Amino acid sequence: MRIGVDVGGTNTDAVLMDGMTVVSSTKTPTTAEVSEGIAKALRTVIEDSGIDRAAIDGVMIGTTHFTNAVVERKHLTPTACIRLGLPATVCLPPMVDWPDDLRDMVGGNSHLAHGGHEFDGREISEFQPEEVRAIAEQIRGAGLDAIAISSVFSPVNAAFEEQSAEIVRSVIPDANITLSSEIGRIGLLERENAAIMNSCLRQLAARTIDGFKAALNELRITAPFYISQNDGTLMNADFAKEYPVLTFASGPTNSMRGAAFLSGLRDAIVVDVGGTTTDIGVLQHGFPRVAALAVDIGGVRTNFRMPDTYSIGLGGGSLIASNPLKVGPRSVGYELTEKALVFGGDVLTATDVIVAAGAEDIGDASAVSHLDDKLINAVQERIMDMIAIAVDRMKTSATPVPVIVVGGGSILVTGQIEGASEIIKPDHFPVANAIGAAIAQVGGECDRIFSLAELSRDEALDQAKGEASERAVNAGADAESIEIVDVEEVPLAYLPGNATRIMVKAIGDLVEA
Is 450 exposed, middle or buried (0-12, 13-18, 19+ CB in 10 A)? Predict the structure, then answer.
């Protein structure tokens, strides 16, 4: 049996699954100390099901904790950045495009050194070990041990990053080092940003994941636990400590994977309605469509894999104003059960309107019996218009497509969505996010530029597939179960040497404990 947990800003959802069957599920308010909310949710599903804890094979946890840390500017470790690329790239130093407050919090400590490669692996300049050693001495003198190392075109050749890491560790033995080639894609600044962000989150990741372990120990759960990645797959706890940025946007991803599982559809649009926001994403072959462009996280452009989602300020706790009519984006969030009219509060929310319309029977309906029919109809129309516009924005053509509606706030969807061929609200829709975590496999990917003037297309594909498979195994996948699920080739006509960008995704089953 597996337990899936999704820790959101409003609720912590948990579900116990026996194979492909949902045994029990729960929603509890997210707590300031994340592990407390997880422990409560786990305890509830275990007690409700009455299962023996020894029967639990694994616990899969999705969390927004690290995304929130960047957005809220909290719990970030000062980090130094070493970039290998002189004499190129001087005009755009590390963190040049960061918001001032975030750069100041991380420290803005950056250094340029010789090295780097062209797209085809040729050196920009000769690597100088003593130069890197001198930089490491400066970083140690500044009292820093969180370090990000980036090199021009390191996804093509990571040798200079790896050599620099060895030198830095010889000077700072306890250094917490992130190599940009292990996280980001082609594109120096965005890849470098992702590496810096990863390093500044590692201390928080260690504390958070240790807190998860403590919650499991408290409940006497000895099964291994895994953390959701933002591509719909899992990584083991130790891997998550090393790469916390890979959890960014894992919440919407889990919801989409759960929606695919519950509906049986592999290609559709998913509308995930929460307490504060609605996230819209696209399923392709059962996995979220990956964003093609750089993704902004807390004001910083990054280019590691992220789901292509669009969020609007609409949820069950959205505040309603009548003159002029306005739905959201302000929300009572996790205080819905205290502040909404149907729960004895004094704030008019979207949930109150849906109850007043007779579309849902929760709370005290008499508390909203005074609402005007004209207001009720106008709010419902506005909600459906907001969703329809968001769905249309995510479509790539005018052809109607299936729309799967999930999330605790999906009671707001009371009519037809323009552009949808059908609307599906599957069983267990409120906890689709936790289900998505519970059913996930382990994945890895490769995104590199190859020069086909130096090797054949088949050799390049084999290298990319091998690298993606190796990363999946390192994240906790069974090597025997690895499957290549996506291969994309993009010829780069503007570069010499018959250059081709190859992107490969591999997934596999969890290694049996």
Answer: buried
Beta bridge partners of 315: none
Q: What is the 3-state secondary structure (H, E, C) of 78-141?
A: CEEEEEEEECCCCCCCCCCCCCHHHHHHHCCEEEEEECCECCCCCECCCCCHHHHHHHHHHHHH
C-beta separation of 437 from 228 below 8 A? yes
**What is the distance between the alpha carbons of residues 235 and 442, in angstroms, rounded to a whole number?**
6
Beta bridge partners of 225: 59
The C-alpha atoms of residue 458 and residue 406 are separated, in whole angstroms, by 42
Q: Which of 233, 160, 245 is nearest to 194 (CA)?
A: 245
Residue with tokens 């929130």: 68
Tens digit of each residue's pLDDT (9 = 90 or more) over 60-108: 998 877 877 887 788 899 999 999 999 999 999 999 999 999 999 999 9
Please classify residue 255 by burial: count the beta carbons closer than 10 Å to its beta carbon, then call 0-12 exposed, 13-18 middle and 19+ buried. buried
Distance CA 240, CA 31 (A): 21
Tokens at 24, concatenated: 């029990």
Say if CB 505 and CB 468 are below 8 A apart.
yes
Quote the percentage of the chain above a pLDDT of 90.
Answer: 55
Structure tokens given for 2 = 């597996």
Name the packing angle between helices 129-141 and 159-171 (round to 10°). 50
Mapped onto helix, strand or coil, the DSSP state of residue 30 is coil
The answer to whether the CB of 472 falls within 8 A of the CB of 484 is: no
User: Using 50, 70 and 90 to split pLDDT, how confident is the model at 413?
Assistant: very high
Asked whether 8 and 274 are in contact (CB, 8 A), the reply is: yes
What is the CA 393 to chain-centroid distance, rounded? 21
The rounded radius of gyration (Å) of the Cα atoms in the chain is 24
Give me 28's structure tokens.
């509890």
pTM listed for this prediction: 0.78
Strand 401-406, strand 268-273: pairing: parallel
What does the alpha-carbon distance between residue 146 and residue 144 come to, in Å, rounded to a whole number?
6
Cβ neighbours of residue 487 closer than 8 Å, sequence gap 6 or more: 461, 464, 465, 502, 503, 504, 505
State how far Cα 306 lies from the chain centre.
Answer: 7
Our CA angle for 122, 123, 124, nearest 5°, is 120
* Cis previous bond, 324, omega within 30: yes
CA dihedral 259, 265, 271, 275 (to 10 degrees): -10
Q: For residue 164, give the nearest of 143, 183, 185, 181 by alpha carbon.
A: 181
Structure tokens at 382: 């506005």
Helix orientation angle between 188-218 and 65-72, rounded to the nearest 10 degrees:
130
Q: In the numeric block, which tokens belong to residue 262? A: 């519950």
**Beta carbons of 475 and 234 less than 8 angstroms apart:** yes
d(CA 335, CA 329): 15
Question: Amino acid identity, residue 56?
Answer: I
**Tokens standing for 53?**
């804890």
